[in-house]
Fold this protein.
Amino acid sequence: MRRRPRIPSAPLPQRDGVDPVRVRLPMDGSWGTVRDHLVERLAAGPGVIDRMLHDGLIVGADGRAVAHDAPYEPGLFVWFHRELEAEVPVPFDVDVVYRDEHIVIADKPHFLATTPRGSHVSETALARLRRDLGIPPLGAAHRLDRLTAGLVLFTVRPQERGAYQTLFRDKRVHKEYEAVAAYDPGLALPRTVRSRIEKERGVMAAREVAGEPNAESRVELVEHRDGLGRYRLVPTTGRTHQLRVHMNALGVPILGDPVYPVVADPVPDGDFRRPLQLLARLLEFTDPVTGRSHRFVSERVLGAWSDPDAWCSGLAGQNTGDGRSQPGR
């Protein structure tokens, strides 16, 4: 069995709560220099890698700048900070529900990514919490979609992260979600939905395909009024977009979903109206490090249920789109 290489500690500090990029050079290849490989691999644009090397912005494990003519070395690690483009601020707060020396439980708003990915880097829950709480090694034990609000578990100590990630992998975390969708009196609920979901890289929507089920969700109707239903969703697996796919398959796609049943045109940056009406409401688990029993409940509300007129008019994203519970609700 081939042993995975030990990854050295990053020689560069975080910048604005964001880790430096780490690149490991492949064990095989015909590049003559580190520079040649980075130019081909990163496709950063004409002259970008050369400028970064000239300015000493790409470093090795010892923190020293990589020379422009440094020979290619298989397995070598190098680090650098990406040049971040300006991101539209998400104007809603990340609430800290619980914090101890091992974990942080955060209540994430809609529209904020959990961790850096794609064009969302500094405007993420992880980067914000690192900055606000002053915990540079903070890491996410799992993720929520950017459009989904609710509870996320972060770990304080990198050496303990695996123990908490294992909780999710081994299905030892009880999770409940809340969603708002159309009410269908002919839909028999509660029911457990099982199917096989596949998600192709670069394709926006996941899809159900024939084959052995790999996704399972319990769907319950909590209450209904005026043609809308409030649903409790309990997933036992964690496929990409699973709850959204299953609700769509039942004929009641979640309100505000820009992908299911039809991929909608992209909205302009800064348009925070009509957020996806999906909320990670509850997390319950036994702490693998301390042995404590934890049960956390989000205090956010879904605007399409609490104020459907405002949500339908597009005002909910401007006024109560952060999803906090409002007085008297």
In short: The first strand starts at residue 21 and ends at 24. The two ends are 57 Å apart (CA to CA).
